[in-house]
């Protein structure tokens, strides 16, 4: 006996990636909602204000258009080229969740962090000449690490839909949107394939 779900909601970037490596699913192309990708900072930190200022200016550039084109055409995957880190000044500690392809992941071919959010953080760091110290975290551990000052930024594939929750937090803030995205629904086409991937749980009797 199966517990069945009909659809799962993801950012469009994540939905496209899941579809590329999975069978039994399809994307519902009807517009659901528009949101944006964001990074997580300690509440009211200097890094947050600098990042938001950088995003505001960077979104006006031709380079940003090229970055968006890379994102929208599936340009982040294991082994995909990523820009060089050039910062040599102040060290910033950046926590990243290693399994959120294509937004934040550990690249097993390049042996380094990679992804949509990772590249934006590198661009930010290069702009301010920050040297990045990458730290692998989980979606759970990144918050106490931010609160304790062990990391300055968390890359956890968050979207702006969580902003109201962060606005009432004493400890954490979301950045400005660095990449607009749609919320996409992945629908099940073949429950046999879908259950094989472990995405349907057997209830038992």
Description:
- The protein is an alpha+beta fold and 205 residues long.
- The protein contains 7 helices and 12 strands.
- The protein has helices spanning 12-21, 46-58, 62-72, 116-128, 142-147, 163-167, 191-196, and strands at residues 2-3, 7-11, 25-42, 91-97, 99-100, 104-107, 112-114, 131-137, 153-159, 172-174, 179-188, 201-202.
- The strands form 3 sheets. Strands 2, 3, 4, 8, 9, 10 and 11 form a 7-stranded mixed β-sheet that branches. The protein has a 3-stranded antiparallel β-sheet with strand order 5-6-7.
- The longest helix is centred in the first third of the chain and has 13 residues, at 46-58.
- It starts with a strand and ends with a strand.
- The relative contact order is 0.30.
- Mean pLDDT is 87; it is low at 195-205.
Descriptors:
205 residues, alpha+beta, three-stranded antiparallel β-sheet, globular, disordered C terminus
In short:
This protein is α+β, with helices and mostly antiparallel strands and 205 residues long.
Mean pLDDT: 87
Helix-strand sequence:
EEHEHHEEEEHEHEHEEHE
Fraction in helix: 25-40%
Which term fits the overall shape?
Answer: globular
Number of helices: 7
Uncertain runs are 195-205
Distance linking N and C termini: 8 Å
Please state the CA-atom Rg, rounded to the nearest Å. Answer: 18 Å
The largest sheet is: 7 strands, mixed
The percentage of residues in β strands lies in 25-35%
Structural class: alpha+beta
Number of strands: 12
